[in-house]
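User: Can you help me understand a structure? I only have the sequence.
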Amino acid sequence: MSDYHPGPDPDFPYLSERDYFPFSDPKTWDDDIIAIGGNLSPGMLLSAYEQGIFPWYGPDDPILWQSPDPRCLIFPDKLHISSSMQKIYKNRVFDITLDEDFRGVIRGCAETARPGQEGGTWISNDIIEAYTELNRLGWVHSAEAWQDGHLAGGCYGVLMGNVFIGESMFSRKSNASKAAFLYLAQWLFRNNLAFIDCQVPTKHLASLGGEAFPRKEFLTLLKKNHVSRYQTLFSP
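Assistant: Let's start by predicting it. Here is the structure, written out as tokens:
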């Protein structure tokens, strides 16, 4: 793949939903960055997720395909809902929906300032359009937290096989993203989801039940749970 273009490479072929792109053998991976270049077409993205890889890059970079080591995972028996969050659900502070406003969620994630980004975001217009297309095709899903009829927060990610790969979340009101994420997580686990891949370990994810696993173990779990575009567990 070419590494001369910032963002998607205009010379790289478009891959449809059923096309497959093989990344390098994981035995050769010695860094978090697995490959550089390519584009964000449906087949490219789905191929990456099947192989434990996702795009993560800055506005001036070519597409960087990454697979962090270690990886943050949440299993059904480890999901943690604090007593304060239980009160939020009990008091119906937010109305939670699934796949009600995906574009609103991903744009909310893009507009949220984050530490170290200096006002920028890795969720570019290219990312927004690519994941909106995957949402249209049924691979990407969102959870929304509403307050007084306004979108207060949410999260989105990729559902493949019986694994959900969380991509991003945002809040305009305190605890809104957490409420949306935990609602979605409970819904997924009730429907026999194996685990949630939260990608990069953080203290916040650890407070929700996230645990760090070596990348090699994570890739074994993907194979064990038959993560493939040809096997979709369900749709919210």
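Now, to help you interpret it: The first strand starts at residue 33 and ends at 36. The radius of gyration is 17 Å. Let me know which part you'd like to focus on.
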